[in-house]
Amino acid sequence: MTGGWQPLTGPSHRVALDILLDGPLSRAALARRVGLSPGSLTRITKPMLESGLLVEVSGGPSDPRVGRPSQPLDIVADSHHFVGIKLTGDHAVGVLTTLRAAVIAAADRPLPDHSPDTVAATVAALTEDLTAQGPGTGISGLGISLGGHVLNKNEVRSAAYLGWEYVPLGDLMSRHTDVPVVVANDLTALTEAAHWFGAGRGVERFCLLTIGAGIGYGMVAHGRIVDSPESSLGLIGHHPLLPGGPRCDRGHRGCASALLTTDAMVSQVGAALGRQVGYEQCLDLAERGDRAVRKIVDTAGHALGRLVAAAANFTLPDRIVLGGEGVRLVEVAHDALLAGFHADRHPDASDPPIVLLDPDFSEWARGAAVIAIQTFVLGS
């Protein structure tokens, strides 16, 4: 790989981070952002240019009076590469990315079983597969995300889909690789990906809701993710939405988990039809006008609208991002969702923009890569 990022501190770190997130930037704009004189900025950026981390790119005239062309500074995104892997109940889904989280390659492997050693070996093999598709310079970090409670970017306190409790996944990975490894809750990782390089980029305040095997919620305010040791507990999944509705596995009637998860939808449609169908088939049947399925899907869409309204009412976001493998519900039940949303909003309130993420699991894997990028860049 070309020159390193760390150990950058103080103004050097701020300069590199600003260029990473918002570059290319002219020297004048960069100096204003970080409060440096042109001479100080030149001294700071010179070693980063020499190392290959920064590059000068062509730009327009910086001063129309003299017509002298500017040469904005940008990050060499290919100077470092990262692997991100999302663990589901049966697969490891991975991507190889640049320093700006652009996906270069994607791959997946089935999990033979849920034992921590087997999962770690599978992740290591998938990492090798992805690294081999890169430029041959190796990777600078590996991020792993999963649905569960993660401590200190290393230990999985609990992960129901894998049947894990107190699994030091980061330490286990050190037996397979000498690349720095970070472990994160998948919703936290997806939120950070939207924040740094995705739908929430440049937005002061946004929230992210996901629907799929579970219900997730993440929020960024004042340019920082709102985090807590309880963030990965899936608390919003039990927000009440439909009095007297179906029960979730904890006995709550009409909560988000009972109405919006893919399993809940499949269960309700299966009961109505007398036969089992998959989640995508449920949505297909609703689109084709099956009355029983349409009613179930619209009920879910209305409930999702109420959940989005609750998020908007409490957090006043500039933007709402919806994702997860079940996000197609937003399109199929669009009218019902808007009805549920407006039912719980003040008539004078404006609708925040809503952005949909790709439902593919590679989007979650990209989030894991972003956690590795952040750890590498921020040094924490």
Automatic annotation (TrEMBL):
The lineage of its organism: Bacteria, Bacillati, Actinomycetota, Actinomycetes, Propionibacteriales. It comes from Kribbella flavida (strain DSM 17836 / JCM 10339 / NBRC 14399). Coiled coil: none annotated. SUPFAM superfamilies: Actin-like ATPase domain, Winged helix' DNA-binding domain. It holds the Pfam family ROK. InterPro entries: ArsR-like_HTH (IPR011991), ATPase_NBD (IPR043129), ROK (IPR000600), WH-like_DNA-bd_sf (IPR036388), WH_DNA-bd_sf (IPR036390). Gene3D superfamilies: 3.30.420.40, Winged helix-like DNA-binding domain superfamily/Winged helix DNA-binding domain. Belongs to the ROK (NagC/XylR) family. This is ROK family protein.
